[in-house]
Write the structure tokens for this entry.
Amino acid sequence: MSRILILNAIPDNTQSELETLLEKIASDPTQGSEYKVIRLRENDIRYCTGCWDCWVKTPGLCAHKDAMTEIYPEVISADCVVFLSTVSMGYVSALCKKVCDRLIPLVHPYFEIYQGEMHHKSRYAKRPALAVWLTDESPEPIDLNNIHLLFDRLSINMKTDFSGVIHPKTTMEDISNALSTL
Amino acid sequence: MRYLLCNGSPKGSTGNTARILDALAEGISSAPGQHIIRANLNRVQEHESVVSTLLESEVIIIAFPLYTDAMPGITMAFIEALRPHIDRFETHTFCFIVQSGFPERIHCEPVEKYLVRLTEILGAKYGGTLILGGGMMMNPKRFQIVNHIGARLSDTHIFDETCIKKATPLIRFPVVSRGIISLATKLPIAQSFWDSQLRANGAYEHRFDRPYESKG
């Protein structure tokens, strides 16, 4: 059974109906996957400061001692990490971007050529696929395209698969179907 | 003309983004009558105050280092702070500077597309994005390009297209050179920038550690 980690980066409690449905799905044993949901806004997560400690002082370990310390092992052990976010100013929420930045300790500082481009080496052999779930049921096509492009790039940098951007309707059936495609 | 130079680097005044903005400010100042204000975006509690200054400015430059293929999270938080004022940017021009350690433009092009869209959402005029790839450090060539863009900015109020193209001309490595570069990255000297810091910190032997891996 695949393990799907949903990083809920909805910045406020305006989507409580969706969050209730999500928790129901996550606790439903008949679902085809094992889900874990982390509500990021309820956790103390600091911004990456670009200190590079995780690359040159304490390899692989982030200098911040906050909620990410518990989230990193969840990311590494998942088969797919889904960033659940509102569309914010044409992109994902700042909370979502903050957590993306904090994934830097999962890559190595050394450079190598990957897919014909310069990238950092991977630190971990097993890397989860990435996906984005937008809470907006009908995002603007240009925003959808930009978010797709940006997370596709992140997936290349993390040397993993990109499972795409989903934006299901807020019904149990649609959410279940969308998640089953990941 | 009133300029606001926003530094979107989490490192604030101590980072390389600040040095790039120094060069830009020097170029802008070469023309008389230019009024420049500098702001760091690395403290969320100061964003509201920067937004107030931004509303009173005419040309806004937001510079940041590439973090996981886009702007740093703290810069995105500032972008969100602009949301309540969306209908008030009609007379504003937004320009952007993105700096990246990767030599190819391809790493920055998706965020460049986003910045065009952001300017459209704000209802402002787009003045261009300068991509500075190939290292975070300032050097004479880079200083000259950024300084010249600043000097031209006082005339045109947008970034000079020719300078933008000169700054990072390489989009992707040519297919024929990829194998050679790939081999070169395997040489010890290719990673010496990192190795010297790892050694200085006594961390070299642990450089391949995987501290978040399950021990079970």
User: Anything to note?
Assistant: Residues 3-180 of chain A form a domain with the Rossmann fold fold (CATH 3.40.50.360). Chain A touches chain B through 54 residues (CB under 8 Å). Chain A has one domain: 3-180.
